[in-house]
Write a structure and sequence with these properties.
Number of helices: 15
Number of domains: 2
Helix content: 40-55%
Strand content: 15-25%
Distance between the termini: 15 Å
CATH class of the largest domain: Alpha Beta
Shape: globular
Radius of gyration: 20 Å
CATH topology of the largest domain: Rossmann fold
CATH superfamily of the largest domain: Glycogen Phosphorylase B
Structural class: alpha/beta
Order of helices and strands: EHEEHEHEHEEHHEHEEHHEHEHEHEHHH
CATH architecture of the largest domain: 3-Layer(aba) Sandwich
C-alpha cells in the first residue's frame, strides 16, 4: 500500500510511518516537522514566516511537492489545517488530493472545530481546555481558538473535510467523544503510536535521595495547557521539600534534546486539562517516568484496560496537583510500581507496530 501522511503533531505521523514501513508499506511523510520540534519528514513543508519572501518560497516548494502527492492508496491529514496556509487556500489543495488519490482520512488529534465546540458545551467533559464544569475558560489562546475555529473559516474547512472524507481517526478519548456523535459510522478510535523499541526503560529506585521532576513549558501556550499551574505547584513542593526533589525544565527545545532531557528523570508533569496521556506522556511512560496529568477512567475504558493504573491523575487545580505530587514525595515506593505499570501500559496499547496494523485494518474497511 502507498500511504501519504500529511502534517505532523507531536511525532504521531513520523512514528506511524515507521511502523507502517516495517509492516512492508511505502510511506511518505510531508510536514513542517511540527515547527521547532523538528520531527522527521520526507517532504519538508516548513514555512519560515508569513513574510512575503518566505511565503513565496513556501508556495514555490509546495507547487513542486504537490505532483508527488498523487496516486496514493491512502492520504491521512493530521488536521483540517494540514499546512501553514489560510483555510481558503487549503480548500483547493484538499480537493486536489481527493481527486488524485484513492482514499482520504482526517485525523482527530488536536485543535479543531469539533474540539472547540464540544469543550464549550459544558457537559460532555467535566473539564477540558475550554471548560471547568459549566464555566468557560477564557484566556488569549482560548479566545483566539474560539474565534478561528467556531466562527471562522477554519471551522468551515473542518466541517467540509469531515463530511467529505472516507474516515476519521480519533487518537484520544476526548477527540473520539467530539467526533463520534456527529460521525458514528466513519469514526474509529486508534491509540497514538510509540516506538517502544527505541527507548530503554529505567525504573526509579525508591531509595534515591531525590526525585527528579520533568516539565516542558511552551511559553506561548502554558496557560492553555495548564503547565503554568503545574509549575507553580512544583515550585511550592520544592520549597517544602528542598532536599528531596529536583526540577528539570525544558522550554521550547527541539524534540531530540527534549527526549534526552527526560532520560534521567523520574516523573513527568503533563497537560493539566486532559483526561488522557498524549504523545509526550506516553513517550515518558515508555522510558519509565511516572506521568502526572490525565488518567481519568474514560481513558482506561476506551482502551479496554482493566488492570493497570500507572498515571497520577490530577484535577485542574494547583492544590490538587500539589497534593498528588506530595504523595509521591511521601511514598517514593509507589514510583517503582507506577513506572513498571506505565512501561507495560504503553507496550500493551501503544506499540507502534500494533497501532500501524490497526490503521491498516481501518483504512481497508472504509470503502
Amino acid at each position: 500500500m502507498r500511504i501519504l501522511l500529511l502534517g505532523e503533531y507531536s511525532n504521531v505521523h513520523s512514528t506511524l510511518a515507521k511502523g507502517l514501513r516495517e509492516l512492508g508499506h511505502s510511506v511518505t511523510v510531508a510536514s513542517d516537522g511540527d515547527g521547532w520540534k523538528d520531527y522527521p519528514r520526507d517532504i519538508d513543508l516548513r514555512r519560515k514566516s508569513t513574510g512575503k519572501l518566505d511565503t513565496l518560497d513556501f508556495l514555490f516548494r509546495l507547487g513542486r511537492a504537490l505532483p508527488a502527492m498523487r496516486d496514493y492508496d491512502v492520504v491521512q491529514l493530521i488536521n483540517p489545517v494540514f499546512m501553514e496556509l489560510r483555510p481558503e487556500r487549503l480548500f483547493p489543495i484538499y480537493r486536489y488530493l481527493r481527486r488524485n488519490n484513492a482514499k482520504t482520512f482526517l485525523g482527530a488529534f488536536g485543535m479543531d472545530y469539533y474540539w472547540v465546540k464540544t469543550g464549550l458545551d459544558g457537559h460532555t467533559f467535566r473539564y477540558s481546555d475550554f471548560n471547568i464544569g459549566t464555566d468557560i475558560r477564557h484566556n488569549p489562546d482560548n479566545d483566539r481558538f474560539i474565534a478561528e475555529w467556531l466562527d471562522g473559516p477554519k471551522g468551515e474547512l473542518n466541517r467540509f473535510i469531515a463530511e467529505d472524507c472516507d474516515g476519521i481517526v480519533s487518537g484520544l478519548y476526548e477527540y473520539d467523544a467530539c467526533y463520534r456523535p456527529a460521525f458514528p459510522q466513519k469514526t474509529r478510535f486508534i491509540p497514538f503510536p510509540i516506538d517502544t523499541g527505541s527507548v530503554t526503560p529505567r525504573i526509579p529506585h525508591p531509595d534515591n535521595p531525590r526525585i527528579r521532576f520533568f516539565i516542558g513549558i511552551q511559553r506561548t501556550r502554558d496557560a492553555y495547557k495548564g503547565t503554568d499551574i503545574m509549575y507553580k505547584a512544583l515550585i511550592r513542593l520544592a520549597r517544602q521539600y528542598p532536599d528531596r526533589i529536583e526540577i528539570v525544565k525544558a522550554e521550547s527545545v527541539p524534540f531530540a534534546q527534549y527526549s534526552r532531557m527526560m532520560d534521567q528523570c523520574d516523573v513527568l508533569l503533563d497537560q493539566l486539562y486532559s483526561y488522557t496521556p498524549a504523545m509526550n506522556a506516553l513517550l515518558a511512560m515508555a522510558k519509565g517516568l511516572v506521568a502526572v496529568g490525565g488518567g481519568e477512567e474514560e481513558n482506561y475504558e476506551i482502551l479496554g484496560e482493566k488492570e493497570l493504573r500507572p498515571i497520577v491523575n490530577v484535577q485542574p487545580s494547583e492544590e490538587d496537583v500539589y497534593q498528588q505530587l506530595e504523595q509521591l514525595i511521601l511514598h517514593p515506593e509507589d514510583l517503582a510500581r507506577r513506572s513498571a505499570e506505565g512501561i507495560e501500559y504503553v507496550r500493551r496499547h501503544h506499540d507502534y507496530l500494533k497501532v500501524a496494523q490497526q490503521y491498516l485494518d481501518f483504512w481497508d474497511r472504509q470503502d
